[in-house]
Please model this.
Amino acid sequence: MSATRELILSAGPDATARALDFVASICRAWRVQDDACFDILLAVDEAVSNIINHGYGGRGGVITLRVGQRERDVIISLVDRGAPFDPTQASEPDLSGPLASRETGGMGICLMRKMMDAIRYCREGEENVLTLIKKEALP
Model:
């Protein structure tokens, strides 16, 4: 990646807002297309929320957020030491039945998949590494 910025977050109540402010400021500085920036922010919101609530179970921890660019693509990496979970292997939620009878959960991952062009996950030692890629987002 030619340019990368990093933010270390405490996985507490203000982590999502801080992550979104950080990413939004980068989108402005890099002149990311408005629709692409919206998609990126929505995906980051979901990813950070999932790490806090599911990875760390609300107990706190650290999230490293990296935002980089490669040619016209924006690449976001989120690194945490929470419970291992590969969102790329999660099944799609069943949206066919009535709303009242559907299982809760799974919509955040579904949104990330729809908003981003690629999602990758790997476990490196004790760390989860989630990478979100938005292609052709830069001028």
Notes: The beta strands are 3-10, 62-70, 73-80, 118-124, 127-134. The first helix runs from residue 15 to 29. The chain is about 35% helix and 30% strand.
